[in-house]
Please model this.
Amino acid sequence: MKRDLTVGILALQGDYSEHRRALAGLDIDPRLVKHADDLEGLAGLILPGGESTTMLKFMLGESLMEPIRRFHENGGALFGTCAGAILLAKETSSPKQESLGLLDLSVERNGYGRQLESHIAHESCPALGETPVEMVFIRAPVVRRVGPDVEVLAYHHQDPVFVRQGRLVATTFHPELSNDSRVHSFFVHHVMRSENAFSRL
Model:
């Protein structure tokens, strides 16, 4: 039976419009998520880049933390980019802050430095094919610890920058700011189709 692959984008703060553009390039019309009720019927949710402290404040204000955790527990897939990766991680530092605590990572905020250290790299990612992936780093976090169930899909400067743990995916870079749609395609067509990804539909 054909399943509904509806994907949502958390649209409280950050560059959610760029994720919407990236999905449009895959002929996908996402739902913008601002309230807990907006999660109903989704198979996946993207947590965009932005300012993680501000995004967390809005998530707490909209009482979204527990609904997003339940969404994942019930089979929903989650994809966090940059600030979204911080919000997914079990541990954060520099400074420590509350998170969803779902992805078994320790993440240092702004680990690559301030805005002046923002840069673009091209790195190998076998899961996405032979062509290197363009990676846009903007005040990017650095993954300092990876749990035993986390698969590292790509590295930059020997640091994990693209990881997967079941129905959880995170990048410390911004694939939505590149013309390369393979990371979004991987999330929609592989992670969201993975086992138990539709148990809530």
Q: What stands out?
A: Residues 52-61 form the longest helix (10 residues).
